[in-house]
Amino acid sequence: MKTKAGIVLSIAIAVSVLADFLIAERDHPVFWWHETPAFDFLLGLVACVLIIKCSKLLAKHWLQRGDDYYD
Fold it and tell me: What pTM does this model have?
């Protein structure tokens, strides 16, 4: 099941990046990152991964109780 999900995710990423190259308008970029294709997508992907990793780290070390908590 993980292989199918990975293939679908890879295809979705490739289609998104290709659409950004072909469809996005870059007539008058305000900032330098608006000129870079797929920058917003990659920034969002990295931010989501960081949020998930930080949340798991916080949950493991701060919220999770030990195995002998009630003993």
Answer: 0.55
